[in-house]
Amino acid sequence: MSAISEARPGGRILVDQLVVHGTDLVFCVPGESYLAALDALHDTPQIRLIVGRMEASAANMACAHGQLTGRPGIFFATRGPGATQASVAVHTARQGSVPLIMFVGQVPRAHRDREAFQEVDLDAMFAPLAKWTATIDDPARIPEYVSRAYRVATAGRPGPVVLSLPEDVLTETAGVPDAAPHQVVHPTPSAGAVARMREMVARAERPLVVVGGGGWSARAAADTVALCESWGVPMATAFRCQDYVDNGSPAYCGTLGLGIDPRLAARVHESDLLLVIGARLDEPTTGSYLTIEAPRPRQPLIHVHADPEELGRVFEPVLGICAGSAEFVAAARALPSPDSARFADWTAAAAADVRAFRTPGDAVAGVDLARAVSDLCDALGPEAIVTNGAGNYTLWVHRFWRFGRFGAQLAPVSGAMGYGLPAAIAAKLAHPERPVVSFSGDGCFMMGCQELATAVRHQANVVFVVVDNSSYGTIRMHQQRRYPGRPVATELSNPDFVAFARSFGLRARSVTDAHELVNAVADGVWADHPSLVHVPLSSELLTPPRPATHDGAAA
Ligand SMILES: Cc1ncc(C[n+]2csc(CCOP(=O)(O)OP(=O)(O)O)c2C)c(N)n1
């Protein structure tokens, strides 16, 4: 690394900036367009380089790393073919408010705009997906661009940045000093705004807190639980943010999003004040903008967000507060508690509902997934990291797993299939000391399964659970509802998953009941090799049973 200005090739300057900004893990699929950056990584032992087998999955690993650590995940891809494959992770990072920086090798400057070999106008292509995208045209400006990339990726609402690197910019030398390490700025709320929020809560009868969004932290999690317990208000999590608060808290009342407990949806309707901290209020969280009505919710909305552009973007807050979540909650905790007895029945009833919702019901034939997920959660404890992609199998995971700490769930807010498997590899690389379990449907699994080779190569000893109903079950469910008796394009022919996994060098087995599933996973998480557990599931069993609503109607 250089603090002075001796001439260095662009690739070296670039990699030195990654070190300056604290990056120690980089994901890539190599390409000839950025050989000079790869060559610099060859001489940079501070950075561990993980080579993936397909850009979508490898970029998903970088996204998961960003989601788990709060620091930008870093991914290198080659021009057109690599960048187009990787674009799904940019979208997932955008919807999930995850810091991600993708560096893309680009055609040399002299060939630009000729539709040269593999050329794509990357700035135009990523404009609607990324938070910021740019092409670096001068090696002397690499420190400036990279520094801005780290700042943009982590500031306000975190998100993805795409920087394109013309091949000759990486080989040309420049004498330029390194940038200073970036700092993340967290806005603090004004005292007046926090006091007004407290007043509104104190006057409410059925307040509800909803937490979510980017930039969350263990401190935000602990303070939110302490605040909601001392004020006596119920707290719910936004879609796929279930690990933002301790699900064992007496103030925890469940999670909004797909597969929501209908009794929780009813409570959102009944609430007379919404205090939303950090969440953007996306479509799944708001029940397609009906459980929380857009643009004007039926109840007053206090919206706290670190990015002022998110306040009033979709929903009209009565009180908008621009602040980091942790900063807001810390400020709120400094105020005297309102009369918590006022909300006691409301909060106790909401907490009782979630306890009932996550209790497995009557056993089902074959593998009882509800029982298995619930027992596995007990067996592995709060340190376990659980990942998934998209599909109906996630409904069991989200409903029956009880998260006890922040940084335990990696799931795509974007609903992208193929995320869970690479995300689990990234989690295990970041935390080899913690159990990591990836849940995939058979459809989801096949969108990332080539990375089993990456898990073996880098000793990411994950347990990959494949819930196999031989179909794209979610879509079949929608077909049954909208076009009954006319299933199409949803039946799947699968490989022998056990033999497939073994061919990569994993240990693998198929299970026939919940007990076997729990044991297989509990053994596998501590093994010195990755493993796969195949879970055959009837294709008739498309969702966990839905409970009745408060008035007894079937939901
Ligand atoms: C990348 C991507 N492609 C397509 C979809 C649409 N989609 C959502 S769920 C689903 C089926 C998932 O199948 P599987 O993983 O087997 O889980 P299941 O629903 O059967 O439990 C599909 C095709 C998507 N969300 N993401």
3D structure, described in words:
This protein is of the alpha/beta class. The protein has helices at 10-20, 35-42, 55-69, 80-96, 122-126, 142-154, 167-171, 191-203, 218-231, 262-270, 325-333, 344-357, 369-380, 393-400, 420-430, 442-445, 452-457, 473-482, 497-504, 514-524; strands at 7-9, 25-28, 48-51, 73-77, 100-106, 132-135, 160-166, 173-175, 207-211, 235-237, 252-255, 273-277, 301-305, 319-322, 385-388, 409-410, 436-441, 463-468, 507-510, 531-536. It has 3 domains: 7-175, Thiamin diphosphate (ThDP)-binding fold, Pyr/PP domains (Rossmann fold, 3-Layer(aba) Sandwich), CATH 3.40.50.970; 191-356, Rossmann fold; 361-536, Thiamin diphosphate (ThDP)-binding fold, Pyr/PP domains (Rossmann fold), CATH 3.40.50.970. It contains 20 helices and 20 strands. It has a 6-stranded parallel sheet, with helices on both faces. The longest helix has 17 residues, at 80-96.
Notable characteristics:
single chain; 555 residues; alpha/beta; Rossmann fold; 20 helices; globular; binds thiamine diphosphate
Summed up:
The protein is an alpha/beta fold. The chain has helices at 10-20, 35-42, 55-69, 80-96, 122-126, 142-154, 167-171, 191-203, 218-231, 262-270, 325-333, 344-357, 369-380, 393-400, 420-430, 442-445, 452-457, 473-482, 497-504, 514-524, and strands spanning 7-9, 25-28, 48-51, 73-77, 100-106, 132-135, 160-166, 173-175, 207-211, 235-237, 252-255, 273-277, 301-305, 319-322, 385-388, 409-410, 436-441, 463-468, 507-510, 531-536. It is globular, with a radius of gyration of 24 Å.
